[in-house]
Write a structure and sequence with these properties.
Blueprint (H helix, E strand, L loop, with lengths): L1 H13 L4 H16 L6 H10 L6 H14 L2 H13 L5 H17 L2 H18 L4 H11 L10 H10 L3 H7 L1 H19 L12 H27 L4 H19 L8 H31 L2 H12 L3 H18 L2 H18 L4 H15 L7 H10 L3 H24 L2 H9 L4
Helix pairs in contact: 1-2, 2-14, 3-14, 4-13, 4-14, 5-6, 5-12, 6-7, 6-8, 6-11, 7-8, 7-19, 8-11, 8-19, 8-20, 9-17, 10-21, 11-20, 12-13, 14-17, 15-17, 16-17, 16-18, 17-18, 18-20
């Protein structure tokens, strides 16, 4: 069954079938070839996959992100960052990185981050003289912080599959996400100052104060989410619901850019996004169930042990493998398939479960912007109107810098575990 399932999946995926159908059809073929299990197991496992309390946080955070984008929060974040650093040489590229660092904690998605911030900043950067390939590269690379900085949909999925605390994963992403942002900040400035000579006039104190005052409502979102979880007031799922209420109130009554007539469209969009995530989760659920029941985790662990029993080398092999998976597969589907396989290997090697989860998440996020088929990269390229052949010049150095951060986190676990331990979650 295992061989038939994996071979069918590869062939169907290479044939160009959407990932959700490739997963479901490959699982069905595997069950038919085996012949010992009834096909009724398919709907049972598909519904069982998404029948998890932790996954209730996904639609809440998706809806909150839609409300915040339509309510003007992303625009005010960009205006605030521009007021403080936009006048520096290469400042607009730095604004792109910093805005993504802040907005990552709101959208919880690298693709959403690239679309929301990129739609505002990429055209502005091009008008100021930055090349379109550079704009696409810096925005895509900055968006890798989306699945890392809390709240993170990928962290919720990882927690649902492994039983690891969502709060611990949220906290573990704070320092790695900050390091990713700082490394990109320096690299973006290095390139930007060679493209743009002119700089704008620094904003005066009154303008900066006004922009900060306007954006303070947006900056409270991570405080509410993480503060509620850390204080024990509500769970991660309940924090998503609180984020929805907060975004709705701010959009309607504070910024007043959100109208009641906008809500039906927002609900439809968030429902479609949630539906796409959930159908991939359900299809990947039956696929992953077959892999686990056919002892693929044990087979993979035995294979790695046959190569080496050095924990550091095993970690490196897993990173390289997951980077490749992230390059060719959508990040949610990749997570659902590979997390149940890799988590037991991490436990067998003695890795801390929160640290190991963070390394896997960071690697998959990096894969989403790595050529030739990184999904997030193509979102930014579409906004900028750039071609892959042009983008390679800029995106690869950024990928290497981010990979260095991944390796740092992988081999210095305290980078990820410091904050969870500080707050007593480990």
């Amino acid at each position: 069954m295992l061989t038939a399932t994996i071979l069918s999946f590869v062939v169907i995926l290479l044939a160009g079938m959407p990932i959700v159908f490739a997963l479901g059809l490959a699982a069905t073929i595997g069950l038919v070839v085996d012949g010992t299990l009834p096909l009724t197991i398919i709907p049972q496992r598909m519904t069982g996959m998404i029948d998890t309390f932790a996954l209730l946080a996904v639609p809440f955070f998706v809806l909150a992100g839609e409300l915040m984008e339509r309510g003007g929060i992303s625009k005010r974040l960009v205006e605030m960052v521009s007021a403080f650093i936009g006048h520096f040489r290469g400042g607009l590229a730095m604004v792109c990185v910093v805005s993504s660092m802040i907005f990552a904690g709101i959208t919880a998605s690298s693709a959403a981050d690239a679309a929301a911030i990129g739609a505002i900043l990429i055209p502005a950067m091009i008008r100021q003289g930055y090349s379109a390939p550079f704009c696409a590269s810096v925005q895509a690379a900055s968006a890798t912080m989306g699945p890392i900085i809390p709240p993170s949909t990928l962290a919720i999925i990882y927690a649902a599959l492994t039983g690891v605390s969502i709060g611990s994963l949220f906290l573990a992403g704070m320092v790695p996400g900050l390091l990713m942002g700082l490394s990109l900040l320096f690299l973006a400035r290095y390139y930007a100052i060679r493209m743009v000579e002119a700089t704008s006039e620094p904003a005066d104190f009154r303008t900066r104060l006004a922009s900060l005052r306007s954006a303070v409502w947006a900056l409270f979102v991570p405080v509410i989410i993480l503060g509620g979880i850390l204080s024990g007031i509500f769970t991660a799922t309940e924090s998503g619901a609180m984020a929805v209420v907060y975004a709705l109130l701010v959009g309607l009554f504070v910024y007043k850019e959100l109208k009641l007539s906008d809500l039906p469209d927002i609900f439809v969009r968030s429902t479609m996004i949630t539906g796409m995530v959930m159908i991939v989760l359900s299809a990947a659920g039956i696929f992953a169930w077959i892999l686990v029941t056919q002892n693929l985790p044990r087979i993979a662990a035995d294979f790695l042990m046959a190569i080496t029993q050095n924990a550091g080398i095993v970690m490196l092999l897993i990173i390289v493998f997951m980077l490749f998976i992230g390059m060719v597969m959508e990040i949610v589907a990749a997570g659902i398939i590979m997390i149940p396989v890799l988590a037991p290997i991490g436990m067998a090697m003695g890795f801390n479960e929160v640290h190991f989860g963070m390394v896997i998440m960071m690697t998959m996020a990096l894969g989403a912007v790595t050529p030739p088929v990184g999904v997030t990269l193509f979102v930014a390229m579409g906004i900028a109107g750039a071609r892959l052949s042009e983008v390679n010049r800029y995106i690869w150095p950024m990928v290497f810098v981010l990979a260095a951060v991944v390796l740092l986190v992988a081999y210095v676990p305290e980078v990820a575990l410091f904050v969870p331990r500080l707050f007593g979650w480990l």
